[in-house]
Amino acid sequence: MKNPKESTSLRFGARRLGDLQHDVMETLWSDEEWLTPRQVSERVSGDRAYTTIMTVLRRLAEQGILERRRRGRAFEYRAVLTHDDFYADRLANVLGDSENAELTLARFVDQLTPAQRREIANRLATDEADGGRHGA
Q1: In the chain, how many domains are there?
Q2: Which of 24, 53, 88, 123 is a good FRET partner for 41, with 20 to 30 A between their CA atoms?
């Protein structure tokens, strides 16, 4: 999986994944290996047609969310980013797309639990102590 800090934002956008897209991504994130559509189809819960899973995988690859490679006659897929990096990228895109990023961030912080606020404060303090290298 790619390190999101190696490039600029991947622009996955703030759009929520659909239920099936989410299930497919969770399957790929939990396995962390290259999977064929058949393997994904077997692991995704619900009564989904194999061709539907193939279509979702292809579309996620076209959007840059998945990597795709040919193996024999089939394709295999894996996530470009880890679960946490994917959602962090989405949050960064929300801020980037906002007309007032500071206000959006302030309103987001207002919704955090005390434990989440402490985690952010600790991250910021660590980043500051490291000379800001982690925020780039």
Answers
A1: 2
A2: 88
- What SS3 class is residue 112? coil
Residue 131 structure tokens = 């000379």
Q: How far is residue 22's CA from residue 70's CA, in Å, rounded to a whole number?
A: 23
The answer to whether residues 13 and 68 belong to one domain is yes
* Same domain assignment for residues 71 and 29: yes
pLDDT in tens, 77-121: 999 999 999 989 888 888 888 899 999 999 999 999 999 999 999
**31 within domain boundaries:** yes
Q: Is 4 left (phi over 0), alpha (psi -120 to 50) or beta?
A: alpha
Confidence of residue 13 (pLDDT cuts 50, 70, 90): low
- Is 50 exceeded by the pLDDT of residue 6? no
As a whole number of angstroms, the distance between CA 67 and CA 59 comes to 11
The Cα–Cα gap between 7 and 94 comes to 18
Last residue of a domain, one of 48, 79, 110: 79
Burial class (CB in 10 A: 0-12, 13-18, 19+), 99: exposed
